Each structure stands twice: as C-alpha cells, then as structure tokens.
Amino acid sequence: MITTYYFLSLIMLIYNTFKDIKTREIDERYNYFAFGATFMLLAYFKTSIIFIFALSFLTGLIIFITKRFMALGDLQALTWILLGFGAIEQFKIVKFLIAFTMLLVITLITKKFIKREQEETPGYILILGSYIITIFW
C-alpha cells in the first residue's frame, strides 16, 4: 500500500512538474486525485482525528510561510504530501521539511547570484526534489 502510494504520488509530481515548467499552469485534477489517495491512506492506517488536526495546523502554518514563493497548485501538492507522510511515518514530515528548506534556500541564494528575480521558479521543482530525497532518505 505504501509503495503504491509513493509510486502514484511520484508519477503525479513528475507530470505536474513538467507541465508547470512548460506552461506555468497545472492540471488540478491530479492534486484532487492525490488528496483522495491521501485520505484513503489516512483511513487505512486509522490515524487519530487529533493527529490529523495537528498535522493540518502544521501544514497551514507552512503554507502561510511559503505562500509568497509558490502558487496555489504548489501549495495543494505540498498539503497532500505532508498529510500522506503524516499517515505513513511522522518522522518523514521532518525529513521532507528539511529537504524542502534546503532546496528553497539554495534556490533563493542562486537567484540572488544570477540576478533573475523577475522570473519565477516553479514550486513543483522544489516539491519534487524534496519528495525524492525524502523517499530515499
């Protein structure tokens, strides 16, 4: 079940990343499908409602902090990834946030040196990189 979830999530993230790079817009249906798969995962592991609320609060806080760097589709993907990692293994959330923060800092520093502040970096690149690092970490 967990391997299937990782595989489906990775496929959706790869597709949305390339679509985001190419057209600067994504197909929201893949995010909605991933939300459904994540909630099925939460039900499968019988996650407590208190933990889901705490995880939702944490996700909301992270979205509030990163919303100026990312668009709505990126934030939706970030939400279902954090909820999915919370259902599978709580420590994976910490690993994902460490990887995400490292990639975000590297991206911001690189943009400062290259002087390309007017051009936005698609957030899906950061999310996909963090997701791959977290799965294999």
Q: What is the topology?
A:
Layout: H1 2-23, H2 28-44, H3 49-66, H4 72-88, H5 90-114, H6 123-136
Overview of the molecule:
By secondary structure, the protein is mainly α. The chain contains 6 helices and no strands. Helix 1 (2-23) packs antiparallel against helix 2 and helix 4 (72-88) runs antiparallel to helix 5. The longest helix has 25 residues, at 90-114. It starts with a helix and ends with a helix.
Helix content: over 70%
- Report the end-to-end length measured between terminal Cα atoms: 19 Å
Q: How many individual helices?
A: 6
Question: What does the radius of gyration come to?
Answer: 15 Å
Low-confidence stretches: none
SSE succession: HHHHHH
What would you call the structural class?
mainly alpha
State which percent range the strand residues make up. Answer: under 5%
Largest sheet: none
Number of strands: 0
Determine the mean pLDDT: 78
Shape verdict? globular
Describe, in short, the structure shown.
With 137 residues, the chain is mainly alpha-helical. The protein is built from six helices and no strands.
Keywords:
137 residues; mainly alpha; 6 helices
